[in-house]
Amino acid sequence: MNPRKLCVVTGARAEYGLLRWLMQEIADDPALTLQTVATGMHLSPEFGLTYRHIEKDGFAIDAKVEMLLSSDAPVGVAKSIGLGAIGFADALQKLAPDLVILLGDRFELLSAASAAMALGLPMAHIHGGESSEGAIDEQIRHAITKLAHLHFVAAGPYRRRVIQMGEQPARVWNVGAIGLDNLTRLALLDRPHLEKAIGFSLAEPTFLVTFHPETLGGETSTLALFAALDHFSKAHILFTQPNADAGGRAISEQITAYVARSSGRAASFSTLGQLNYLSTMKHCTVVVGNSSSGIIEAPALKRATVNIGTRQEGRLRASSVIDCALSESAIVAALHRALSSQFQATLDHIDNPYGDGGGAISARIKDTLKTVPLAGLLQKNFYDLEKSVHVG
Fold first, then answer.
1. Could you give the 3-state DSSP secondary structure of residue 349?
2. How do strand 266-269 and strand 236-240 relate by DSSP bridges?
3. Cβ atoms 49, 56 nearer than 8 A
4. In order along the chain (392 residues), what is the average pLDDT of each group of 10 residues?
5. Are 344 and 378 contained in the same domain?
6. CA 164/CA 122 separation, integer angstroms
7. Does a structural domain hold residue 181?
8. What are the E-state strand segments in 129-277?
9. Quick check: is 10 in a domain?
């Protein structure tokens, strides 16, 4: 019997960081063949040509799908989605995988899912059922859920939501947040080795800041954020640059200008890589911004999060996450609360709704992808909750 071909699509640094151990599990299994398609930001010099990180980890890239236009205006993103669908049609037809694996909610994946659907290729979707109501990612995530055939979700409420969308319960597994595998499988750096690796000294406090555009019309200016950070003159600040979303380049330029005038107490990185990023999170004092990593990984590392604005609205939260509006006063108040000794004392007792990982999530997903029957998988029968019993 020929090995089952599993094709992993990745378009961004953070997404690859979540998929990395699943890819390793697939590559190490003689009954499976790993295929890797790199697209989006991975192929862009502006975002660090991060496909090289994939190759450095020992994975061959079977296809590269160029799709990002230089414009990050909404019309540019729309055109990039179209270019991606054309590129994925060619790549997936040539690779002819048995299953296509997609994670999350980025627009590159909508291109891949559309092409896979038209080619009659079954899809497995990871991290469905979640909400990020301040971004178009919300619609993209749910659209991919309806295009996909197998679902691996991060929490019980998300499993119920995917089933509520008409997906068969037997095809939806609650495995926890796959990115938590990194906390077990990666040997995170101690502080001196981290500072040497990134060329930047940490302080008390240190803020790790990631701020993406709110692509559904929310305020994306960083002026309030920068004004708030200036209230903490002793803090050292590490910025990771935003994704290739509409409005992302403007934020990136604003961050670069802020770092330039911050007298050495701030630095920005197009990409830190998963090891350096999680090590920085481990040693920082507060995670700041609107990235999902502040919602999922930071609680597992017992770090406080100040979550700004509406981009992550709708996601489950640990008690370590402090939500605030995108205003100077609100961010300052949230940071003071996060830094308070009372709040810091609660962090050792966080209950993370996404689980503790244990390092086995990727293995569980791989085992299911290896053994699930493929016959009849393309046939999707809508699961009607009104005619069903309790789904768990």
1. helix
2. parallel
3. no
4. 94 90 97 97 84 94 93 86 96 98 94 97 96 77 97 96 96 95 94 96 96 65 91 96 73 92 91 91 97 94 95 91 96 98 96 83 97 94 78 57
5. no
6. 21
7. no
8. 150-153, 172-174, 206-210, 236-240, 266-269
9. yes
